[in-house]
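Pasting as-is:
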Amino acid sequence: MAGLEGRVIAVTGAASGIGRALALGLARRGAKLALADRDEAGLAETARLLGNWPVLTRAFDVTDRAHLAAFIEAAAAEWGGLDGIINNAGLSVVAPFADCPREDFDRVMAVNFAAVVEGTRLALPHIRKAGSGWIVNISSVFGMMGYPTQSAYNASKFAVRGFTEALALELAETDPGIAVIRVHPGGVKTNVARNAKKIAAMPGTPADLDSDAAFEKAARTTPEAAAEAILRGMEARRHRILIGPDARMIDWMTRLFPETHFRRIGYFLGGGR
């Protein structure tokens, strides 16, 4: 079954942004939903926007393995199985590496990478039992290039990219019915940048710089457009999805200019997911 109608899909980070847009898009395609986020109020609003569409919701932190495991098991029990997971929850911290406290760096890695691995680990047996399905992991354009003040985010998103590429190659041999997809969004108008913990800027950065406004200006894609690209990619069973013109440009520039791409595209980028 290639389409999403009737399939059971779990989505983390579903309280806003791309996660909420994915939930609404999946419902329009007839999928059964299990949604998670630590933001209980935002998650309730997503459920409200779904109207009468049946949905299972759980509010918890994705780094809590016991709650994550309970969420996956509840989804499978509620709907009689699980066909896919979209590991979408994420956060960022803004600081040069030398100024980034260990606990902040580790928190980004725990949410953006370790929780993706654990969500995949917990969902995979159920998806294998279904015989076909999807594992969708959200990386970033910052999983293709480094960016100053984003060492933790870069590390987590490069790790998601490598993990997902390896898993895709493995399951292509053992479980060809499971599409393993890595997603590289460019600048998307979500809360990830707005809610980032801002610790320090690079030396020489103007004191009055409004980084949130700069990101809003640079962000070229809406959450709805990003979600639609992901869902079309799932239906087509693609293994890599680039979202936005900036993501496509960065993809080409990092390949064409592996040593000098940042100098060439830094001004254009301005901000990113």
